[in-house]
């Protein structure tokens, strides 16, 4: 995984790039390369708060290395990513929680994502060193989401995530396929623990240190814990 920087609209922005190369299959909710398929890279690109470009796919393509890949965006600082591993599974999470929300919010609830300059997205990239069936991949995404939500609630946030969260699970394209990805399966349990650890650590570090910092601060406190690990999966 590689961290790089660029300048857009006068703002220094980071990007995390995982260059897997051939032999990987991914499932993702990302706007670029989403769905299930063979992919060679994943990009988690920081964008300016209040991002308003109407060509996000083209934008991500221009930032990627070319070829088939997955691209996601966040207004959170990607250099505050957190990495956690469990039994061969590795999870990377960038955590922004200015606007946590419940998935099943009452009808008519104001969309917090529409508030100006509110940094709030949780992007998760999880790497699993085995092959999985399509059904197991879908199950793995469910496991990632459940573990994320558990971590946020345990960290004291009133919400299951944010409305703009994205996820990507990368698995090997060849080899015996795992048929289960739920939290009680062998590999699903490892996914759950890795995601929970990364998101919990990121959420706890992101939280303002006291109520006086929670007001309209535009930046989260510096992330404590495992930061700046440039090791590839």
Automatic annotation (TrEMBL):
Keywords for the protein's UniProt record, in alphabetical order: Hydrolase
Basic and acidic residues: bias regions: 203-212
GO molecular function, a single term: hydrolase activity
Pfam family, one: CbiZ
Record flagged with keyword Repressor: no
Renumbered residue ranges of the record's region Disordered: 203-233
Protein name listed in UniProt: Adenosylcobinamide amidohydrolase
């Amino acid at each position: 995984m590689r961290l790089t920087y660029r300048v857009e609209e006068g703002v220094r922005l980071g990007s995390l790039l995982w260059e897997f190369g051939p032999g990987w299959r991914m499932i993702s909710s990302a706007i670029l390369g989403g769905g299930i398929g063979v992919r060679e890279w994943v990009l988690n690109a920081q964008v300016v708060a209040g991002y308003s470009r109407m060509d996000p796919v083209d934008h991500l393509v221009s930032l990627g290395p070319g070829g088939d890949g997955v691209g996601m965006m966040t207004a959170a600082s990607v250099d505050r990513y957190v990495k956690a591993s469990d039994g061969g599974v590795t999870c990377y999470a960038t955590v922004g929680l200015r606007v946590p929300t419940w998935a099943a919010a009452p009808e008519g609830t104001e969309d917090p994502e529409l508030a100006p300059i509110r940094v709030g997205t949780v992007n998760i990239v999880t790497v699993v060193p085995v092959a999985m069936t399509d059904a197991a991949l879908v199950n793995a995404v469910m496991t990632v989401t459940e573990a994320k939500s558990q971590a946020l609630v345990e960290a004291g946030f009133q919400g299951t995530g944010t409305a703009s969260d994205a996820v990507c699970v990368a698995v090997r394209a060849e080899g015996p396929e795992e048929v289960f990805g739920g939290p009680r399966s062998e590999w699903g349990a490892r996914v759950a623990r890795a995601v929970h650890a990364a998101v919990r650590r990121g959420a706890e570090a992101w939280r303002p240190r006291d109520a006086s910092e929670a007001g309209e601060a535009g930046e989260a406190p510096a992330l404590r814990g495992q930061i700046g690990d440039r090791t590839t999966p």
